[in-house]
# Entry
Amino acid sequence: MKNIALILICIMLMFGCKNSPQIIKEPWIEKPVSSWPDFALTNEISFSDTTYYDIANSFLVDTGFDTIGVSCKHIFLIFQNQVGFSSIDLGDKFNYWNMYPKNHKEKTVSIKRLINKNSKEPIDQFNTLKDRDWIIFELDEKNTQLYPLKIRYTPVKKNEIVYAVGWAKNQKDNSKPGLFKMQCYMDLGNYYYIKPSENQPRGRSGSPVIDKNGYLVGIVSGQEGKLGVMGAVPYLTMMFDKYGIEYKKPR
# Structure
């Protein structure tokens, strides 16, 4: 009987381990924030008659096969008002789009092309853009000084604590990106509503959102009343599938 009991315990442990795979934390996540690698970036975007400096936030993503650039699609609202854009397409006035950690342009990476451009996709307003607020870029070349975030494919749970990492508008100390704690409130598929843990500054659009283990779970999209809006990974992977971007699909 003792042998049977031991066998049953071993079987239970085997199945328990199989159903609960160990999550490996990113090696930098438990270090001081000042020692984290450079993954939070800002943008310099140039058109033939206008150049935007340090506008919004951006970051790099490790798909498991390649590195891509990411920022927020609602940045096109600015282009709509000031450059006259009407769709998600950089157009023939586009010169360049650079990404870099603020105050460190020597670590710049340039985009080669906007992957999910669509001349038939209207810009609309934020209440429609929030459902599709990811733009993704093929990079001109890799920059080993910058760190691409790995993706977490499992959804953020209700009340889970996550962290936005990026520069806010009028941030007093902009030598490093700010770390902003948030709590997931509601999962709406392509985006989440989130509760800021404190009175957080505005202007963090495009910042990557990471979990406690250092994995990418979303992108800062905007604000609706007292709730924040965070773009979710399912839309990002939908773009991967649509545009043939190879990635390590969850099992």
Remarks:
- Residues 151-233 form a domain with the Thrombin, subunit H fold (CATH 2.40.10.10).
- Helices lie at 2-19, 76-82, 126-129, 233-242.
- The chain has two domains: 36-148, 151-233.
